[in-house]
Design a protein that fits this description.
Length: about 280
């Protein structure tokens, strides 16, 4: 009917696509080719899609976050007696590196006593703590179940550092939230994370599974308040400039406006009920 179609993908496309067999990948390509425009989360995903779509038909639209005082952006973290490190787990905390954090704990605690760790998530996070946390360190570790939005804001305000040493990701929303909250971040160079975190500038990237490097980065940020605060300020600024809701909404609106403008032009050349479609290119 000449209606424009936008396919907006909010998951890690490259992982999903590469895991499929030849038939599945062919179906994915055919589905995306039916869209007039595809929106994805990262340059990494766009690069994969551009192997079978025109690059001009794919846009990268970053995750957005509300950047305001209510999202914990204006917190003064200077002079805190105890550094609060947080891990926000999901349904698969193993994939997000929880066991590497637990392996790093003895190294961290040998160098830093003014530190505590808060783990959040569901039963899988609780299971990991119950079965892998050395009881010696339980006074420095706490567990929180699934959080409401207000509880999450309070958690960010009380935190000094976010850990997400994942093995597989797209663009984790928790990283964007932590940036808006002014937190330094230690993560891994998987998925779109390297497009967000610049080593030593607004966080640190360690190889997945390298718990010793993870421990060293935690200790460094724990012991260097000025570095910790500087990275936090950099993240707040970057979130305001690139990930704020009004910025992303304007970019999305521009995509719609461009498609609608081209739609009005193409409709003039169509006979009634004539479709612009046709046979799909060979997959």
């Amino acid at each position: 009917m000449g209606v424009k179609v936008v396919f907006h993908i909010l998951a890690p496309f490259d992982v999903f696509y590469q895991r499929g067999n030849a038939k599945i990948r062919s179906l994915i390509r055919a589905a995306l080719r039916r869209a007039d425009h595809v929106v994805c989360l990262s340059e990494r995903d766009k690069a994969v899609m551009s192997t079978f779509l025109l690059s001009s038909s794919v846009s990268v639209l970053r995750s957005n976050v509300r950047v305001s005082a209510g999202s914990a952006t204006n917190v003064d973290r200077r002079g805190r007696e105890r550094i609060n490190v947080i891990f926000i787990g999901g349904l698969d905390p193993f994939r997000k590196g929880i066991y590497d954090i637990l392996k790093a704990l003895p190294i961290v605690m040998s160098a830093c006593k003014n530190i505590c760790f808060t783990f959040t998530g569901g039963d899988n996070v609780r299971y990991a703590l119950d079965n892998s946390l050395d009881p010696l360190f339980t006074p420095w570790v706490s567990f929180r179940d699934w959080l409401s939005q207000a509880e999450k804001v309070a958690l960010y305000r009380a935190a000094d550092l976010l850990l997400l040493p994942s093995y597989e990701e797209g663009l984790p929303y928790v990283i964007v939230e932590a940036m808006a909250a002014g937190l330094p971040i230690i993560s891994t160079p998987v998925g779109a994370i390297p497009e967000v975190i610049e080593e030593g500038i607004n966080g640190f990237l360690i190889n997945p599974g390298d718990y010793q490097a993870l421990a060293r980065r935690i200790v460094r940020l724990c012991q260097d308040e000025e570095l910790r605060l500087q990275i936090g300020r950099t993240n707040r600024e970057k979130a305001s400039r690139l990930y704020a809701q009004d910025v992303i909404f304007q970019e999305l609106e521009a995509i719609y406006d461009q498609l609608l403008a081209s739609n009005m032009t193409s409709r003039k050349s169509l006979r009634p009920f004539e479709s612009k479609g046709g046979p799909l290119p060979n997959a």
